[in-house]
Amino acid sequence: MKNLESSVVLYPKVVAIFDVFNWSSTRLNFANYCKRRYFLKYILREEQLLPSVYRRGSLMHNLMCHEKTGVTFWDRLGKKEEIKRNKKGKVISKKKYSNPEEFVDYAQGQWLMMCNQDEKAGRSIEWRFDGEMWEIYNHYIPQVCNPLFDYAVNEGPPIYSELKFDFLFEKRRFKGKIDEIRLNRESIVIRDYKTESPWAGEMKLLGNPQLTLYCFAVCSLAYKDGEFAKSIGLENERERFFGNPNYISDRIKPELFMFDTLRRDPETTKSMPELIYRTTRKDDDILALFLNLQDIEEEVKEFLSRRKKLIPSTEFGKKCDDCDMRKSCLSVLERELEFLKSDKDSLKDKTGQRYFSFVSPYSIGKQKCRRYKQKRFRWKKK
After folding, report:
1. In DSSP terms, which residues pair with 180 in a beta bridge?
2. What is the pLDDT, as a whole number, of residue 363?
3. How far apart are alpha carbons 14 and 104 in whole angstroms?
4. Every domain of the chain and the residues it spans
């Protein structure tokens, strides 16, 4: 697929997309959140902000299972005698903590290390207010990690952490990682950890495309790998997956685990959010997801094939305040407005007629307009 040659100046960073579309959980969230945001990030490669909530989310996910090393919370958990320290009091053993206090110390150390690495690498963190880094260090981490330690120890480890998937289906490539998979009686629980606002409504649970993809991914892995299917108890129905004729097993139950709920005090919080929000997914959900993907894929193809000159328009609203592409969005919008002012053809319809040129005011009657012989002006039949 060729690049959009006519938009070199308007969109200098535009890139081509191949016939096979790559979809990860992050890309799905971008496309579901705002089409323009998806275009700015993945088609135009515009600069993305790094909000502090992203770094805080990375910290909490890494505490449960490190994204790069794959070391989990339970790998670092040990008995008191297994925790070895040097003369300065720094933990030097593979086991990092044995109680909530040690877990909080470890989390605070990881937070400072992460911030120092960002500073050395020149990554600019967008803090919400002055001193937020230390607010997270002194308050957020102790408030969350103290109860998190007890909850995790009592619950026990999952059967899979940071489970990778990568497969092709109908000219689409789906890839990503699932935070955790657990077995709960007759159910297969897919858990996704979240550091965002802990109040989740019905539409957020039912319409979350990330959870839909995870359910489909687990079934696709079971379809291709008999050992994996056996480990989660899907060996008897695996041959029916991947659209033969099912996409998602009824036994799979996705859920959202809200870290921020742990820091809420039930006595002072009027509307206490849930710690875990459970939902379900069916075959219709994956079909609905395919329809949404087809919609944005068609827009991408039209844009790259030069049938459309502009990317999807802005959707200004409350959600823009927390958008990591908002600065790039405004910068690109300025170029688009200049382009519209200079390119008169972009303001014409398919017949070459400028928009609103032949809209008749109410003061002009029907018969009078007909005397003007405006051949392109059409009256609605009564």
Report:
1. 161, 191
2. 53
3. 44
4. 160-297
Tracing tokens 């289906």 back to the chain, one arrives at 169
Q: What are phi and psi of 2, to 5 degrees?
A: -80, 155
Beta-carbon contacts of 16 under 8 Å, excluding residues fewer than 6 positions away, are 1, 2, 3, 304
How far is the first Cα of the chain from the last one, in angstroms, to the nearest whole number?
Answer: 47
For the stretch 65-88, pLDDT in tens is: 998 899 999 999 999 999 999 988
What is the pLDDT at residue 239? Answer: 94
| Paired tokens of 162 | 């940071």
SS3 52: helix
Choose the weakest-confidence range: 6-15, 46-55, 79-88, 308-317. 6-15
Shortest CA distance to 215 belongs to which of 161, 288, 280? Answer: 280
Helix 25-33 vs helix 283-304: crossing angle, to nearest 10: 80
Nearest alpha carbon to residue 358 among 369, 367, 346, 342: 369
Please state, as a whole number, how many other Cβ atoms lie within 10 Å of the Cβ of residue 52.
Answer: 17
Find the Cα–Cα–Cα–Cα dihedral 92, 98, 99, 102, rounded to 10°. Answer: 0
Q: Which two tokens stand for residue 54?
A: 């992203």
Residue 307 is predicted with a pLDDT of 79
Among residues 175, 180, 194, which one has the least CA distance to residue 232? 180
* Gap between the Cα atoms of 289 and 29, Å rounded: 12
- Determine the distance from the C-alpha atom of residue 275 to the mean position of all C-alpha atoms in its chain, rounded to a whole number: 20
